[in-house]
DNA sequence: CATGAATGAGGGTTCATTCAT
DNA sequence: CATGAATGAACCCTCATTCAT
């Protein structure tokens, strides 16, 4: 447990730094360990390289957040509530410079980080797959509930869903629109869009 | 003009390297100048730092592509044709690791590059505004044409539009779906979504 | 006694590692203590530094081996038998990467180990003196026995002796010759050389 | 040629440091470049690693010295003169902590330096072979001249020769003997030994 | 102007040593 | 006492930037 504690302390430090706006590519080991309140050398008792720390930190964070949304969605509710639950979750957990954004960038392929760690990047798909599973379950439940059209290919339904969730992320990054449209209005608009596309 | 030539040569080199899959954060000055076929020191005759080169290169590329889509959209056509024109443009110009993707990442905020250059990042909004203008003109034309509902706030119409364009980018990054759904099917699906949301 | 046991355990570990082919300059404290089966910190209860451990280990090993050859040579025998006894001893005790080789390298001066420990290096001459005593006693006995010429300065006689013993060490390091000449042939050749030089 | 100059400057710096008594294993890149009068980074324009610098420096030095002894031995002379020529050469070129000593230690196998460069160590045998060739030519010439017994296997003749040359090196490292026996006396003694063994 | 050789600041990593348990 | 987790000094190497030619 001690070991896990130290690892987690480093993870939290990485996440905190990212949320503070430090670019992932300019994170220094000393920054991380200082933030974690431990010595520079100590990090190497638990990880073999800086990259290992950062990547595992991202995975740790994303995993934690995915677990959370999973738990939230397990509660019985209808599709509308589920969609708003996801909006709520994104608002608190997947906003800004969080590791969710990092993940998204991984998905678009530009997060290379280092040539030697592409292998690890593949296991990242593990999380993509997890997210995908959540989305597919979401789609399935919507169909079962009778609010999503069953004849539409699930992959396309998922695409439509994701498009509105991405819009929600973008909303937070566009000062201009977030000033003229309230969060609640935006949620209703996006929800309406989903229903128009899939209903 | 000589000067502009050298600058452009450097820009093209940066763009070529990015399209070759080199991560933007691991671009080296020597790589860029070698690719541009000029001496390493020469780059510093025209730019004050590596970051200046790269950022201006991205802007150069994005600007050129925006100019292209502007020109394409100036041709008289209906909304459907305009949407497919944009799809077409994205397919050839904004695919992969292009500067469009980079721009998108700038938009989501994680492309910091360096703490000392945040100021330059702000001028990036210049391009965002340009893109925004294009989109707003697009919306306006759709309304004028009678295919987009006029009562919907333009900012929301734009959001809906962008969501489907983003989905198109994502489509190219998801092997799983790009294998089961053809590009044409996806275009039709996304077009349909736009019409459902805005029509 | 406990204390001595721990020290000896560390010495044996150092010697074992050297005989395993680990370079003396890349020995790590953790390697040594792991091999000795004790905790890393414990080593510092008995020694002030890594270098102290290693140097003392070498001395311990060399001292033990010298004691052995002393004992062997105390048995009454003639010069020829004594020479072959030394060959035999070298074959089993002073071969390979043993501390004898290390000692030899100390003698040729290149084993510095660290600038701060030159003082300790001087005490190393203690062992040189011991070896020297053995050799001088050897020479004296040879003269007394009447097989070594008495008119030759003992220091020179010793030089001649050592030259053939060194050749024996070298023999083990030259695959080319150790394949074409058997150990016994080599011993006879070197013995003959000694007699030619000193007889 | 410029390039070669820089390389040679680094080689000379390494050699000078070694002759100053700095241990080969504690040479720092900054020491070397400071001594060579160039910037630290510059070394990496010509070599890929510190080890490459040091190893090539040793080879450079040994090669140069071997070339010198070759040239000296090419002059027509009898065996006695050749032996004294080698003594002379050792006195000026192969004394002390020179790269010759380093080479000798490589030969006895304890110069590991680094695990990743064992391959290069094999090419070191190139020099061993060169030295061997010189010695074998020496033996052959002695036999042809009629001063070395032809019936003795060349490998054994070489062993005998080397034993006395090694004794000469040792002589310089033993204050005790170098104080009581003059260099010339030692040379005559060792020469006499060679003739007794091989004549 | 154009160059690329030279530079050195900066950062990742190792490992001897310490000290709280 | 014994331990091994924690530490940070030390060092190799990279690469953006400079400047003499």
TrEMBL record, chains A, B, C, D:
Transmembrane segments: none annotated. PROSITE patterns: HTH_TETR_2 (PS50977). Residues 4-65 form the HTH tetR-type domain. The keyword Signal does not apply. This is TetR/AcrR family transcriptional regulator. Keywords: DNA-binding. Signal peptide: none annotated. Residues 28-47 bind DNA. GO terms for molecular function: DNA binding. InterPro entries: Homeodomain-like_sf (IPR009057), HTH-type_Tx_Regulator (IPR050624), HTH_TetR (IPR001647), Tet_transcr_reg_TetR-rel_C_sf (IPR036271).
């Amino acid at each position: 447990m001690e070991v896990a504690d130290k690892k987690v302390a480093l993870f939290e430090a990485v996440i905190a730094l990212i949320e503070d706006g430090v670019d992932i590519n300019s994170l220094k080991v000393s920054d991380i360990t200082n933030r974690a309140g431990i010595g520079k050398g100590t990090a190497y008792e638990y990880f073999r390289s800086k990259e290992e720390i950062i990547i595992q930190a991202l995975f740790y964070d994303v995993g934690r957040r995915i677990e959370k949304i999973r738990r939230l969605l397990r509660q019985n509710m209808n599709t509308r509530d589920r969609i708003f639950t996801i909006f709520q979750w994104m608002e608190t957990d997947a906003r800004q410079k969080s590791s969710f954004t990092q993940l998204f960038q991984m998905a678009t392929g530009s997060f290379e980080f280092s040539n030697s760690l592409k292998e690890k990047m593949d296991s990242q798909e593990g999380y993509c797959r997890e997210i995908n599973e959540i989305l597919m379950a979401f789609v399935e439940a919507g169909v079962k509930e009778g609010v999503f059209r069953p004849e539409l290919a699930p992959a396309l339904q998922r695409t439509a869903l994701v498009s509105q969730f991405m819009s929600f992320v973008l909303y937070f990054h566009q000062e201009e629109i977030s000033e003229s449209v309230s969060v609640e209005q935006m949620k209703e608009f996006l929800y309406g869009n989903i229903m128009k596309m899939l209903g």
